[in-house]
Design brief:
The complex is a heterodimer of chains A (183) and B (200). Chain A has 183 residues and is α+β, with helices and mostly antiparallel strands. Chain A has one domain (49-177). Helices cover 39% and strands 26% of the residues of chain A. Chain B has one domain. A two-stranded antiparallel sheet of chain B has the order 1-2. Chains A and B meet through helix 1 of A and helix 4 of B.
């Protein structure tokens, strides 16, 4: 009985010291991490919608996670939309930049947990650049894109490719519902 | 000094964690889809291994043997969490490229194995070198696996085309089965080499 108390005490002490250290590091890194996240988001918005230079958050709907309206010199030029799509592993967070006219300026994968070496390649420009200049509802093709509304899938990661394309389509639909787009 | 070199040799060659001890298989099979991933995972593991070996060696006399395993796990998990937080705050580029590998290190049994087999019985300096040797041995083995899989699976290494353009990449090599194929064949070749050496 005495032994158990002693061992328990030592284990408690070790756990308490470790927890204290982790808590301390968490405390001092909280602010820089928060700042990094905001900076990363700013950078992503500029990347997907280069024609805008300032962004303002607007009300989102069920399909869209976050809506940021981008403007230049006080005039609205387009949207930076964050959408979530079910990936192969976890949900994939995608930011899509679309102009008032409904044309995609760029997309960026904000967060994903796809298989390294396969689905993970979705964040490479060779995949994401395919979405640039598109303005219609898109389909995924596994044998190479042959028409304007097709995106060629990443080899070995069709599920990821479809998930991202679905997300982008949601963003396109949103802009169309807002009166933009190429109807 | 000689003992420290012996530790490095032991970790990299003689008791290579992957090819000889066959431990830490889960991250080995999962992350060796490319050379870049393999090196990232290997070096991150090396850093944690050195830190945890040093810390466990320092407190080895205070920890009663009956509760050593939970104590080691708490210490290792704390190290990984702290490294993860510090990387996220100050080197975000490295943090995002390591991604899921960092939390995976906690469950890498190589680290617990070295804590148990070596650091808990030896002084701090040798334990640090043991961690370094084992870490480098792990990195080397991962890199070899990653190189073979990336070359056969994509025809490239570190995104530089190696194979001629007519080469048709064997996607299966970068999928899960490819990991087992390559690991099995490499281990078989090493065993052939070793048994010939013994016979001589």
């Amino acid at each position: 009985m005495k032994d158990i108390a002693k061992l328990g005490g030592i284990l408690f002490l070790i756990a308490a010291i470790c927890a204290g250290l982790v808590g301390f590091v968490n405390e001092i890194t909280k602010e820089p991490i928060e700042r990094q996240k905001i900076e990363a988001k700013q950078e992503a918005m500029i990347n997907v919608l280069p024609s805008a230079d300032s962004f303002e958050e607007a009300e989102a709907n069920d399909e869209i996670e976050e809506v940021q309206i981008g403007s230049k010199d006080g005039e609205k030029v387009g949207y930076a939309l964050t959408v979530i799509s079910k990936g192969y592993a976890d949900p994939i967070e995608i930011m899509v930049g679309i102009t008032n006219e409904g044309v995609i300026e760029g997309i960026e994968i904000l967060a994903s947990n796809e298989t390294p070496g396969l689905g993970d390649n979705a964040s490479e420009p060779s995949f994401t650049d395919q979405f640039k200049e598109k303005s219609t509802t898109l389909k995924v093709s596994t044998s190479g894109a042959s028409s304007d509304d097709e995106i060629s899938a990443i080899t070995g990661a069709t599920v990821t490719s479809v998930a991202i394309t679905d997300g982008v389509n949601k963003a396109i639909e949103y802009v169309e519902s807002q009166g933009g787009g190429a109807q | 000094m000689k003992k420290l070199f012996e530790r490095l040799y032991n970790g990299i060659v003689k008791e290579n964690p992957i090819f000889t001890q066959v431990i830490g298989m889960c991250p080995t099979l999962a992350v060796t889809t490319s050379v870049g991933n393999a090196i990232g995972m290997g070096l991150a593991t090396t850093v944690v291994l050195i830190c945890s070996n040093a810390a466990i060696s320092l407190v080895r006399k205070f920890i009663p043997s009956s509760i050593r395993i939970p104590s080691f796990i708490v210490i290792i998990a704390s190290f990984v969490t702290m490294i993860e937080l510090l990387l996220e705050a100050y080197i975000p580029a490295l943090y995002s490229s390591l991604g899921i590998f960092l939390p995976l290190i906690v469950v890498n049994c190589l680290i617990l194995a070295r804590a148990e087999a070596y650091a808990s019985k030896n002084n701090v300096i040798s334990s640090i070198f043991d961690g370094l040797g084992m870490g480098l041995g792990f990195t080397l083995a991962l890199t070899v696996l990653g190189a073979v899989r990336e070359l056969l699976g994509t025809g490239k290494i570190l995104n530089i085309a190696i194979m001629p353009a007519s080469y048709q990449p064997a996607i299966i090599m970068i999928l899960a089965p490819g990991a087992f194929f390559v690991l099995g064949i490499l281990m078989a070749l090493l065993n052939v080499y070793r048994s010939k050496k013994v016979a001589r």
